[in-house]
Amino acid sequence: MSGPSSVKDEPIRGRDQLVEYLAEGEKPAAAWRIGTEHEKFGFRLDDPRPPTWEGERGIGVLLEGMTRFGWQRVEEHGKLIALLRDNASVTLEPAGQLELSGAPLETIHDTCCEVACHLQEVKAVADDLRLGFLGMGFQPKWRREDMPWMPKGRYKIMREYMPKVGSLGLDMMTRTCTVQVNLDYSSEADMVKKFRVALALQPVATALFADSPFTEGKPNGYQSYRSHIWTDTDPDRTGMLDFVFEDGFGYERYVDYLLDVPMYFSYRDGRYIDLAGKSFRTFLAGDLAELPGAKATLRDWADHTTTAFPEVRLKKYLEMRGADGGPWNRLCALPAFWVGLLYDQAALDAAWDLVKDFSREERHALRDGVPRHALKLPVRLGGTRATVRELAGEALKISAHGLARRARRNRHGADESTFLDILAQIVDANQTPAERKLELFHGEWNGDIDRVFREFAY
What we know:
The protein is an alpha+beta fold. Helices cover 42% and strands 17% of the residues. It has 17 helices and 17 strands. The protein has helices spanning 15-23, 59-66, 108-129, 153-165, 169-175, 188-208, 225-229, 251-260, 280-284, 298-305, 328-342, 345-355, 360-373, 388-406, 421-429, 433-442, 450-455; strands spanning 34-44, 72-76, 79-85, 88-92, 98-101, 131-134, 178-183, 214-215, 218-219, 238-239, 265-268, 271-274, 309-310, 312-314, 318-324, 378-381, 384-387. The strands form five sheets. Strands 1, 2, 3, 4, 5, 6, 7, 14 and 15 form a nine-stranded antiparallel sheet that branches. Helix 6 (188-208) packs antiparallel against helix 11 and helix 12 (345-355) packs antiparallel against helix 14 (388-406). The two termini are 23 Å apart.
């Protein structure tokens, strides 16, 4: 959930221009990059409450402190809400979850260094403020009404609209954190194949990264409660996008989908105009009552593409959206998993072979069952009965081979497959991060949820 787009503010001539917008994302394989984003919960070290934006220990002061590392300030109505540096940004989710949107980088080694540097910078400033940060998929202790709200215009609009379309949208905004990776494509056909593989295997990533088993200090019956939340957020803009698997899918079909996603806002003259629930098609025609005579611009379109929240999202790249936030090693593992599957042709072919005969019902059963059961969920694999654990193991093997063939090595000679080790351990142990925390909660923590803030902070 970033700020307004930097795309040119020129009126849209017609639907073809929206298709061209997506096609402009095509890049030759040599120019493919890796963009990783992750969010994390801030908390006070003395009582693990989330910090507000205001105050001497607030998120505003934290952002101000980070400018010492060369970050440039971004303000909205005089309030510091984001930072920019070298094609990367630090932004705020609605309740102050701190997000790094990393620069487009060439290798997972580069990505992992970027994440480590960011966490060190955050810690250097946060220590002075007696703040800590935690990587998990869902806020483990505090209630919705305990969460602060950041001073950003688009969040006010979404906050008012969300309860009209689902019961968990405000929880999505204030109490979830994710890690995602953004990846390139070379052509429409390449985009289509990657989109299909990524959608079909997104529940596998959800299972491997499942780390949100607590709500308000108690087990909630889920391993990825964050993933469950998306099932009751807003049906117009979430889900598995069945049309991606239909014959003829491409840029045009995705544009038609986006045109049917209700709007949130238009950013005009430095402020957000509330257009929640309105039709972008009507906006294209210049017939919106809220903006008489105004026609949608390319910047409006770029902003609108960020307000759909399917499991995989197409902008000028593909975004993998299925994973809970977590510790440093899993922030490196997620991009490694998907780069191995999608950036090597043999791996992409093998991954498609793994999932191409899944029926619509099987894909939905995976998506709907993984939040509770994760690796233990039954699944059909090559005509035999198995579990998501076996499916994850096969996907990991394909990814590891893809990364080995990419052969991007660090100064010690290790290729990028080393970043998959933590995921292999999860599969081998048949225990998700959520199950590990539940084991601690029921064991040595004696039901004290505050231990999670002490023992799993960055």
